[in-house]
């Protein structure tokens, strides 16, 4: 395979990046193991610090996923405090807070939930713990001793996983929220105790007609994030 990329390669990449979006309503139809393996093979090409490849991925489907879904939803709905391996963000501020709110309002607005309707928005937020009806979840973990480095290399892996899935027509949504229930995940799935649960990626076939999939998030301008020196 030539390593020399062409303009057509770039155009294809941009098209895939621009058309990928988070999916929050899935069909009840499984993805074949062959397709899942293709996604894993592609994501495995992620770059990492000294090529340590710190990510581990556990694909949960079928009956174990149903049990996990039931337990996660029950626990989150009960309001019991969560437990995270990775410390949660205590407070968002400024632009980060604004973008976060915009994300929530875009989702809730698409479902006809009024701003300030905490009951309805809370109910929708709980759908995270049903994995939005996805037939598979990839649990992403990294050895705890690798700390932040393991986490940010895993971020690159997550991005490639989602892009590879999209290129195969498979919809995804990364789910940091479920990592706040690390204790419940561990009760159901054998995650080594020396690994930190970073997040999940729910994936499957998109329910395209569902309003939760009808909105697209914008991005900040590059002038907000990039600077040139010299
Ligand atoms: C690490 C990570 C964790 C995320 N956690 C959640 C989550 O718990 N629930 C959710 O609905 N979306 C979650 N998202 C999806 C983001 O909200 C989404 O990527 C962002 O709003 C941009 O929208 P887009 O993916 O449709 O372009 C997460 C995304 C990332 C990268």
TrEMBL record:
CDD domains: PnbA_NfnB-like
Pfam families named among the record's database cross-references: Nitroreductase (PF00881)
Alphabetized UniProt keyword annotations: Flavoprotein, FMN, Oxidoreductase
InterPro entries, alphabetized: Nitroreductase, Nitroreductase-like, Nitroreductase/BluB
Domain Nitroreductase, chain residue ranges per copy: 17-205
Domain of life, per lineage: Bacteria
Name this protein carries in UniProt: Nitroreductase
UniProt source species: Mesorhizobium escarrei
């Amino acid at each position: 395979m030539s390593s020399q990329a062409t303009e057509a390669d770039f155009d294809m990449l941009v098209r895939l990046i621009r058309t990928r979006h988070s999916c929050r309503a899935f069909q009840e139809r499984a993805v074949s193991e062959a397709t899942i393996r293709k996604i894993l093979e592609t994501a495995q090409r992620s770059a990492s610090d000294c090529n340590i490849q710190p990510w581990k991925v556990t694909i949960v489907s079928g009956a174990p996923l149903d049990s996990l879904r039931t337990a996660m939803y029950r626990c989150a709905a009960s309001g019991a405090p969560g437990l995270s391996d990775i410390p949660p963000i205590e407070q968002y501020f400024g632009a980060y807070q604004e973008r976060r709110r915009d994300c929530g309002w875009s989702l809730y607005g698409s479902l006809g939930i009024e701003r300030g309707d905490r009951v309805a928005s809370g109910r929708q937020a709980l759908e995270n713990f049903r994995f939005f009806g996805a037939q598979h979840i990839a649990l992403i973990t990294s050895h705890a001793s690798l700390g932040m480095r393991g986490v940010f290399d895993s971020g690159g892996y997550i991005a490639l996983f989602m892009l590879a899935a999209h290129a195969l027509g498979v919809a995804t949504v990364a789910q940091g929220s479920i990592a706040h229930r690390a204790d419940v995940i561990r009760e159901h799935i054998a995650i080594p105790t020396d690994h930190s649960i970073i997040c999940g990626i729910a994936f499957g076939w998109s329910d395209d007609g569902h309003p939760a999939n009808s909105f697209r998030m914008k991005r900040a301008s590059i002038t907000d994030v990039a600077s040139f020196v010299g």
